[in-house]
Design goal:
33% of the residues lie in helices and 0% in strands. The protein is built from 3 helices and no strands. The protein is an all-alpha fold and 66 residues long.
Length: 66
Amino acid sequence: MLKLVQRRFGTTLMPAAASAAAPADLLAVPVEDARMCWSLSAAISSSRQPTAATSAVLSALGEAAH
């Protein structure tokens, strides 16, 4: 994504931690707005039981959402 921004194909929103890896010629502008929120989706197999790790991640995401 950063390469596309660097080549002037657009802009992006990304976590602050990811901006540390941005090339020096890109400017990261912090966005601090309480109205911003993220919607996440998880894709899992409908034909297999989720692994313990997958179940733990889904559970943590569900808890964080409330």
